[in-house]
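quick one, 185 residues, struct below
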Amino acid sequence: MKSTAPRTKPSDERRTDLLDATEELVQKQGAERLTVEDVTTGAGVAKGTFYLHFTSKGDLLDALRDRYVRRFADAQLTAARAEGGVAGARAWVRAGVTEYLRDVRLHDVLFHPTARGERDTPNTVVDTFAEFLAALDSPPPDPEATALILYSAMHGVTDHIVHAPEMSDRLLAGLDRLVDSLIRN
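---
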């Protein structure tokens, strides 16, 4: 009996398979040791399939960074919109902490590489938060600066929670106070 199922996956599914395999591999071995062959083996595809989606290992890692940032920003924006107002800003910061803690190893491998400089691209997370703040009924005087300050505070607090989890409640309460002080006029 012949199968009517297609023999190959759609292109977007193959791309996702390659990104998923890369994500798993970089968390285990880091980005520097990653090879195209490791990725194609992990994704269960031929090497030629890789080059249909990415031009190089660097291009693949850029796509993985973009996917990470989009997932991170989407989680924050969803939390912020669910609450609205100042509570939404606090929810944005807390969702950022949660997302960062969920994938600390992946974040560090992708954004703190040892042999690769920082990318010169916009910070999507800060940009989406600035847009959220600007749309508040009573936005802060400078939504972009406020978003950057709160993002930096969120990032720093999260780093401290990783190394000193016993301070988590105090640090999160401090973030809430900072959000309140920067957003309430």
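The longest helix spans residues 57-83.
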